[in-house]
Amino acid sequence: MKIRESLEKREAEILSPHATLSAHSAGRERQEDPCDLRPCFQRDRDRILYSKSFRRLKDKTQVFLTPDGDHYRTRMTHTLEVSQNARTIARALRLNEDLAEAIAFGHDLGHTPFGHAGERALAAVSPLGFRHNEQSLRIVEVLEKDGEGLNLTKEVRDGILNHQLSLMPSTPEGQIVRLSDKIAYIYHDMDDALRGGIVREEELPEELAAVIGRTNGEWLDTFIHDIIVASADSDTIRMSPEVEEAMHGLRKFMFDRVYTNPVAKGEEGKATELLQALYAHYCDHPEQLPGLQQRMIASGTSVDRAVLDHISSMTDRYAIARYNELFIPKSWAVY
After folding, report:
1. Among 101-105, 170-174, 210-214, where is mean pLDDT lowest?
2. Which three-class secondary structure state does DSSP give residue 175?
């Protein structure tokens, strides 16, 4: 059976000349035999999907810290929505859906507990700094599989590292994820803010509504259609200037009304103090770190780096539990 080869041949026949073909991948850091069933990017997607880091995303904050409602997004649902946007765009442009989905699944693996508040908290106290995109890459290259890493292809690792707007992936599929990430969080963060009563759709400035629509659903539809039209027959994924400007205007509106809103963000100060207390504790007591971090320190990894690896991997719930265990007094009684 030559299933993988037939799938690679089909890619060459039906995908755009601008697509990144699995058969032309730059390969992995460690040589390994190819799968007999799956092209390399599909295999990478599966490795990320089955990783522990991916499963932890379900208990990590997107915008609202540990929300009580069942329908607020988490980092997991954000990742799935990014993936869906990316697949829609990739399919329309006849680009490699497997590559786009693999990058989407991996792009936020390195996020801390409590979302960007946690990222800022660790960046403020560590001399190494902290950036979630770099941590996502570190997870797939070094930390997963008990220190073996996932040995992903170069194209997937490039897309994971460079998914932020200030960076640019080398493949069009990675560029799709870069924009899909932004339009996903604009859409679903507004949806959550509407549900939480933080903002109303009719508050959107008229000059933005005239370009992207008046409802949350219209914005998403406009962004995706515009990317597809603007990027057709090109190896660069982009928006039209008018819609891109409106997207940046909408992001500013979201920062002003949602991301810095004290109602939505009132607990972030507590989350910052919690993570920084954990950081200081583990730096003072590295012997209490898990076995993987202990082995890495013994092999030359700095204590600071090992502490960042451990804390950033925590879910919201686990970070709170560890803080309670370490810093909250327990009742004492004699029976």
Report:
1. 210-214
2. helix
Residue 206, both tokens: 């008229």
Contact 152, 47 (CB under 8 A): yes
**pLDDT tens sequence across 293-309:** 999 999 999 999 999 99
Above 70 in pLDDT, residue 101? yes
pLDDT band at 67 (very low <50, low <70, confident <90, very high): low
Cα 277 from Cα 184, distance rounded (Å): 32
CA angle 186, 190, 193 (to 5 degrees): 145
DSSP helix/strand/coil, 281: helix
Q: Write out the CATH class of domain 27-181+263-315.
A: mainly alpha
Helix 115-125, helix 268-284: angle, nearest 10:
40
The structural domains of the chain, with segments of one domain joined by +, span 27-181+263-315
Residue 99 CA to residue 77 CA, distance in Å, equals 19
Tokens matching residue 30: 């460690």
State the DSSP string of 155-168. HHHHHHHT-STTS-
